[in-house]
Design goal:
The chain is α/β, with parallel strands linked by helices. The protein has three domains: 1-47; 52-190, Oxidized Rhodanese, domain 1 (3-Layer(aba) Sandwich), CATH 3.40.250.10; 204-297, Oxidized Rhodanese, domain 1, CATH 3.40.250. The chain is built from eleven helices and twelve strands.
Protein backbone atom coordinates (compact mmCIF):
# COMPACT_ATOMS: atom_id res chain seq x y z
CA UNK A 1 0.00 0.00 0.00
CA UNK A 2 1.55 3.31 -1.02
CA UNK A 3 1.97 6.29 1.30
CA UNK A 4 -0.80 8.44 -0.24
CA UNK A 5 -3.36 5.65 0.11
CA UNK A 6 -2.49 5.19 3.80
CA UNK A 7 -2.92 8.92 4.43
CA UNK A 8 -6.31 8.88 2.71
CA UNK A 9 -7.51 5.97 4.88
CA UNK A 10 -6.36 7.78 8.03
CA UNK A 11 -8.23 10.95 7.01
CA UNK A 12 -11.38 8.92 6.20
CA UNK A 13 -11.19 7.21 9.61
CA UNK A 14 -10.83 10.57 11.36
CA UNK A 15 -13.80 12.01 9.45
CA UNK A 16 -16.01 9.04 10.34
CA UNK A 17 -14.99 9.30 14.00
CA UNK A 18 -15.80 13.02 14.06
CA UNK A 19 -19.21 12.35 12.52
CA UNK A 20 -20.04 9.72 15.14
CA UNK A 21 -18.94 12.02 17.93
CA UNK A 22 -21.03 14.87 16.49
CA UNK A 23 -24.13 12.68 16.29
CA UNK A 24 -23.56 11.48 19.84
CA UNK A 25 -23.12 15.09 20.92
CA UNK A 26 -26.37 16.07 19.25
CA UNK A 27 -28.22 13.18 20.89
CA UNK A 28 -26.89 14.13 24.30
CA UNK A 29 -27.74 17.83 23.80
CA UNK A 30 -31.40 17.14 22.93
CA UNK A 31 -32.49 16.46 26.52
CA UNK A 32 -30.91 19.78 27.56
CA UNK A 33 -33.08 21.65 25.04
CA UNK A 34 -36.13 19.73 26.23
CA UNK A 35 -35.32 20.58 29.83
CA UNK A 36 -34.95 24.24 28.96
CA UNK A 37 -38.34 24.12 27.32
CA UNK A 38 -39.80 22.61 30.49
CA UNK A 39 -38.33 25.45 32.54
CA UNK A 40 -39.91 28.02 30.22
CA UNK A 41 -43.28 26.28 30.59
CA UNK A 42 -42.91 26.18 34.36
CA UNK A 43 -42.05 29.88 34.48
CA UNK A 44 -45.01 30.69 32.27
CA UNK A 45 -47.27 28.80 34.65
CA UNK A 46 -45.97 30.93 37.53
CA UNK A 47 -47.17 34.21 35.96
CA UNK A 48 -49.86 35.71 38.21
CA UNK A 49 -53.04 36.73 36.43
CA UNK A 50 -53.98 40.28 37.45
CA UNK A 51 -57.67 41.06 37.95
CA UNK A 52 -58.12 44.60 36.56
CA UNK A 53 -61.13 45.24 38.82
CA UNK A 54 -59.29 44.21 41.97
CA UNK A 55 -56.17 46.10 40.93
CA UNK A 56 -58.07 49.34 40.25
CA UNK A 57 -60.20 49.00 43.40
CA UNK A 58 -57.17 48.56 45.66
CA UNK A 59 -55.41 51.44 43.92
CA UNK A 60 -58.30 53.73 44.87
CA UNK A 61 -57.05 53.89 48.47
CA UNK A 62 -53.41 53.19 47.71
CA UNK A 63 -53.43 56.42 45.66
CA UNK A 64 -56.18 58.20 47.62
CA UNK A 65 -56.61 61.83 46.64
CA UNK A 66 -55.81 64.39 49.33
CA UNK A 67 -59.22 66.02 48.82
CA UNK A 68 -60.93 62.64 49.34
CA UNK A 69 -62.44 63.10 45.85
CA UNK A 70 -64.84 65.67 47.31
CA UNK A 71 -65.37 69.40 46.90
CA UNK A 72 -67.03 71.66 49.46
CA UNK A 73 -70.46 72.87 48.40
CA UNK A 74 -69.56 76.57 48.54
CA UNK A 75 -66.33 76.03 46.58
CA UNK A 76 -68.33 74.10 43.99
CA UNK A 77 -70.82 76.93 43.52
CA UNK A 78 -68.01 79.44 43.09
CA UNK A 79 -66.46 77.16 40.47
CA UNK A 80 -69.76 76.98 38.56
CA UNK A 81 -70.08 80.77 38.67
CA UNK A 82 -66.55 81.19 37.34
CA UNK A 83 -67.07 78.65 34.57
CA UNK A 84 -64.44 76.32 33.20
CA UNK A 85 -63.77 73.12 31.32
CA UNK A 86 -65.50 70.54 33.52
CA UNK A 87 -68.68 68.47 33.61
CA UNK A 88 -71.43 68.53 36.24
CA UNK A 89 -73.34 65.27 36.75
CA UNK A 90 -76.65 65.21 38.65
CA UNK A 91 -77.62 61.67 39.78
CA UNK A 92 -80.91 62.63 41.42
CA UNK A 93 -84.19 61.46 39.93
CA UNK A 94 -85.27 62.86 36.56
CA UNK A 95 -88.25 64.54 38.26
CA UNK A 96 -86.05 66.43 40.74
CA UNK A 97 -83.58 67.32 37.99
CA UNK A 98 -86.41 68.89 35.98
CA UNK A 99 -87.50 71.01 38.96
CA UNK A 100 -84.10 72.64 39.09
CA UNK A 101 -80.45 71.65 38.74
CA UNK A 102 -77.03 73.24 38.65
CA UNK A 103 -76.31 75.19 35.47
CA UNK A 104 -74.93 72.89 32.77
CA UNK A 105 -75.55 69.67 34.70
CA UNK A 106 -76.52 66.52 32.82
CA UNK A 107 -78.72 63.90 34.44
CA UNK A 108 -78.10 60.18 34.96
CA UNK A 109 -80.37 59.06 37.81
CA UNK A 110 -78.73 56.85 40.44
CA UNK A 111 -78.92 53.28 39.24
CA UNK A 112 -78.30 51.52 35.91
CA UNK A 113 -78.51 54.85 34.05
CA UNK A 114 -75.13 55.85 35.48
CA UNK A 115 -73.44 52.79 34.00
CA UNK A 116 -75.36 53.16 30.73
CA UNK A 117 -73.92 56.65 30.26
CA UNK A 118 -70.28 55.90 31.12
CA UNK A 119 -69.25 56.02 27.47
CA UNK A 120 -70.59 59.59 27.34
CA UNK A 121 -68.45 60.81 30.23
CA UNK A 122 -65.23 62.69 29.43
CA UNK A 123 -61.96 61.15 30.60
CA UNK A 124 -59.98 64.32 29.98
CA UNK A 125 -61.68 66.69 32.42
CA UNK A 126 -62.96 66.71 36.01
CA UNK A 127 -66.55 65.62 36.65
CA UNK A 128 -68.34 67.19 39.65
CA UNK A 129 -71.13 64.94 40.84
CA UNK A 130 -73.97 65.42 43.31
CA UNK A 131 -76.97 63.52 44.65
CA UNK A 132 -79.24 64.46 47.57
CA UNK A 133 -77.02 64.17 50.64
CA UNK A 134 -73.73 62.81 49.32
CA UNK A 135 -74.06 59.13 50.15
CA UNK A 136 -74.99 57.66 46.76
CA UNK A 137 -72.68 60.23 45.18
CA UNK A 138 -69.90 58.74 47.32
CA UNK A 139 -70.49 55.30 45.89
CA UNK A 140 -70.71 56.64 42.34
CA UNK A 141 -67.56 58.72 42.77
CA UNK A 142 -65.54 55.67 43.78
CA UNK A 143 -66.94 53.52 40.97
CA UNK A 144 -66.28 56.09 38.26
CA UNK A 145 -62.76 56.81 39.51
CA UNK A 146 -62.04 53.07 39.39
CA UNK A 147 -63.34 53.16 35.80
CA UNK A 148 -60.72 55.80 34.96
CA UNK A 149 -62.60 59.09 35.34
CA UNK A 150 -61.61 62.08 37.47
CA UNK A 151 -64.69 62.52 39.65
CA UNK A 152 -65.33 64.67 42.73
CA UNK A 153 -68.58 64.54 44.70
CA UNK A 154 -70.12 67.72 46.08
CA UNK A 155 -70.13 67.60 49.88
CA UNK A 156 -73.58 66.92 51.37
CA UNK A 157 -75.19 66.80 47.92
CA UNK A 158 -78.01 69.07 46.77
CA UNK A 159 -80.35 69.00 49.76
CA UNK A 160 -77.87 69.31 52.61
CA UNK A 161 -75.07 71.10 50.77
CA UNK A 162 -75.74 73.09 47.61
CA UNK A 163 -79.16 74.41 48.66
CA UNK A 164 -77.75 75.56 52.01
CA UNK A 165 -75.24 77.92 50.43
CA UNK A 166 -76.37 81.55 50.39
CA UNK A 167 -77.17 82.70 46.87
CA UNK A 168 -77.13 79.20 45.39
CA UNK A 169 -80.17 80.10 43.28
CA UNK A 170 -77.86 82.00 40.97
CA UNK A 171 -76.47 78.70 39.64
CA UNK A 172 -79.79 76.86 39.27
CA UNK A 173 -81.65 76.35 35.98
CA UNK A 174 -84.48 74.18 34.65
CA UNK A 175 -83.24 73.92 31.06
CA UNK A 176 -82.21 70.31 30.39
CA UNK A 177 -78.69 69.48 29.24
CA UNK A 178 -77.63 66.42 27.31
CA UNK A 179 -74.61 64.13 27.09
CA UNK A 180 -72.23 64.35 24.16
CA UNK A 181 -71.79 61.13 22.16
CA UNK A 182 -68.04 60.85 22.75
CA UNK A 183 -67.75 57.05 23.08
CA UNK A 184 -65.21 56.91 25.93
CA UNK A 185 -63.64 53.48 26.35
CA UNK A 186 -63.55 51.74 29.74
CA UNK A 187 -61.73 48.50 30.55
CA UNK A 188 -64.32 45.77 29.70
CA UNK A 189 -63.89 43.94 33.01
CA UNK A 190 -64.30 47.13 35.03
CA UNK A 191 -67.26 48.23 32.93
CA UNK A 192 -68.95 44.87 33.54
CA UNK A 193 -68.31 45.18 37.29
CA UNK A 194 -69.82 48.69 37.41
CA UNK A 195 -72.85 47.59 35.37
CA UNK A 196 -73.39 44.66 37.74
CA UNK A 197 -73.00 46.97 40.75
CA UNK A 198 -75.86 49.19 39.64
CA UNK A 199 -78.01 46.31 38.41
CA UNK A 200 -77.95 44.64 41.84
CA UNK A 201 -78.69 47.67 44.06
CA UNK A 202 -82.02 46.18 45.13
CA UNK A 203 -80.75 42.62 45.52
CA UNK A 204 -80.85 42.80 49.34
CA UNK A 205 -84.11 44.47 50.47
CA UNK A 206 -82.58 45.21 53.90
CA UNK A 207 -79.78 47.26 52.35
CA UNK A 208 -81.30 48.64 49.18
CA UNK A 209 -78.90 51.04 47.43
CA UNK A 210 -76.23 49.61 49.77
CA UNK A 211 -77.56 51.86 52.54
CA UNK A 212 -79.34 50.98 55.79
CA UNK A 213 -81.02 53.32 58.26
CA UNK A 214 -79.76 53.53 61.84
CA UNK A 215 -83.02 52.01 63.09
CA UNK A 216 -82.80 49.04 60.73
CA UNK A 217 -79.08 48.65 61.49
CA UNK A 218 -79.82 48.53 65.24
CA UNK A 219 -82.49 45.88 64.68
CA UNK A 220 -80.07 43.85 62.56
CA UNK A 221 -77.40 44.06 65.28
CA UNK A 222 -79.87 42.96 67.95
CA UNK A 223 -80.93 39.99 65.84
CA UNK A 224 -77.38 39.03 64.91
CA UNK A 225 -76.18 35.72 66.28
CA UNK A 226 -72.77 34.07 66.31
CA UNK A 227 -70.93 37.12 65.04
CA UNK A 228 -72.54 36.96 61.58
CA UNK A 229 -72.45 40.76 61.30
CA UNK A 230 -69.43 43.08 61.23
CA UNK A 231 -69.65 46.77 62.13
CA UNK A 232 -66.84 48.83 60.61
CA UNK A 233 -66.06 52.37 61.72
CA UNK A 234 -63.86 54.31 59.32
CA UNK A 235 -63.81 57.41 61.53
CA UNK A 236 -60.45 58.60 62.81
CA UNK A 237 -59.01 56.79 65.84
CA UNK A 238 -59.53 59.71 68.23
CA UNK A 239 -63.22 59.88 67.29
CA UNK A 240 -63.60 56.12 67.50
CA UNK A 241 -62.08 56.19 70.99
CA UNK A 242 -64.44 59.01 72.02
CA UNK A 243 -67.45 56.84 71.22
CA UNK A 244 -68.39 54.14 68.71
CA UNK A 245 -71.12 51.63 67.98
CA UNK A 246 -70.80 48.63 70.28
CA UNK A 247 -68.67 45.88 68.75
CA UNK A 248 -67.40 48.06 65.90
CA UNK A 249 -63.87 47.59 64.63
CA UNK A 250 -61.87 50.56 63.38
CA UNK A 251 -60.05 51.00 60.08
CA UNK A 252 -59.59 54.78 59.84
CA UNK A 253 -60.24 56.44 56.50
CA UNK A 254 -56.78 57.09 55.10
CA UNK A 255 -54.42 56.46 52.25
CA UNK A 256 -53.37 52.82 52.40
CA UNK A 257 -56.40 51.63 54.38
CA UNK A 258 -56.90 48.91 51.74
CA UNK A 259 -53.99 46.99 53.31
CA UNK A 260 -56.29 46.14 56.22
CA UNK A 261 -59.21 44.91 54.15
CA UNK A 262 -57.91 41.35 54.28
CA UNK A 263 -58.80 41.35 58.00
CA UNK A 264 -62.48 41.59 57.02
CA UNK A 265 -64.54 38.45 56.34
CA UNK A 266 -66.15 37.89 52.96
CA UNK A 267 -68.75 35.51 54.35
CA UNK A 268 -70.40 38.06 56.67
CA UNK A 269 -72.33 41.25 56.13
CA UNK A 270 -70.37 44.42 56.87
CA UNK A 271 -72.07 47.67 57.93
CA UNK A 272 -69.77 50.66 57.43
CA UNK A 273 -70.16 54.08 59.00
CA UNK A 274 -68.24 57.35 58.99
CA UNK A 275 -69.35 60.86 59.92
CA UNK A 276 -72.03 61.70 57.34
CA UNK A 277 -72.11 58.67 55.04
CA UNK A 278 -70.04 60.10 52.19
CA UNK A 279 -66.66 58.44 52.77
CA UNK A 280 -68.51 55.33 53.93
CA UNK A 281 -70.23 55.35 50.53
CA UNK A 282 -66.87 55.37 48.78
CA UNK A 283 -65.60 52.59 51.05
CA UNK A 284 -68.66 50.42 50.48
CA UNK A 285 -68.28 50.73 46.70
CA UNK A 286 -64.66 49.57 46.83
CA UNK A 287 -65.40 46.74 49.27
CA UNK A 288 -68.21 45.43 47.06
CA UNK A 289 -65.96 45.52 43.99
CA UNK A 290 -63.53 43.39 46.01
CA UNK A 291 -66.22 40.82 46.80
CA UNK A 292 -67.39 41.92 50.26
CA UNK A 293 -71.05 42.13 51.31
CA UNK A 294 -71.04 45.75 52.48
CA UNK A 295 -73.53 48.55 53.09
CA UNK A 296 -73.27 51.91 54.83
CA UNK A 297 -75.29 53.22 57.75
CA UNK A 298 -77.29 56.20 56.51
CA UNK A 299 -75.68 59.54 57.44
CA UNK A 300 -73.03 57.75 59.47
CA UNK A 301 -72.65 58.89 63.07
CA UNK A 302 -74.34 62.13 62.01
CA UNK A 303 -73.04 65.63 61.38
CA UNK A 304 -74.47 68.44 63.52
CA UNK A 305 -75.78 71.43 61.60
CA UNK A 306 -76.63 69.63 58.37
CA UNK A 307 -80.20 68.83 59.31
CA UNK A 308 -79.56 65.22 58.49
CA UNK A 309 -79.86 61.98 60.43
CA UNK A 310 -77.27 59.57 61.77
CA UNK A 311 -76.66 57.06 64.55
CA UNK A 312 -75.58 59.62 67.15
CA UNK A 313 -78.03 62.34 66.15
CA UNK A 314 -80.90 59.84 66.36
CA UNK A 315 -79.89 59.01 69.91
CA UNK A 316 -78.58 55.45 69.56
CA UNK A 317 -76.02 54.37 72.16
CA UNK A 318 -72.27 54.48 71.70
CA UNK A 319 -69.56 52.91 73.84
CA UNK A 320 -66.00 53.92 74.65
Amino acid sequence: MNRSRIISLILLTLLLSFGVMSCAGEQEAAPVVEKAAEVVVEKAAEVVQVDPVEQAALAYFADKAEDNNMIAQDAFIEKVKAGGDFMVLDIRSAADYEKGHVIGAVNAPWGPAVAENMSKLPDDKTIYLYCYSGQTAGQTTALLNVAGFDVKSVRYGFNLGISKVEGYEEVIETTPNFFDAINTKVDPAIEAAVVNYFNTLAEDPDTKNNIISSTAAKAMMDASEGGDLVILSIRQTKDYDAGHIAGAINIPWAKGMQTQFDTLPKDKQILVYCYSGQTAGQTVAILKLLGYDAASIKSGMGTAGTGGSGWGIEGFDVVL
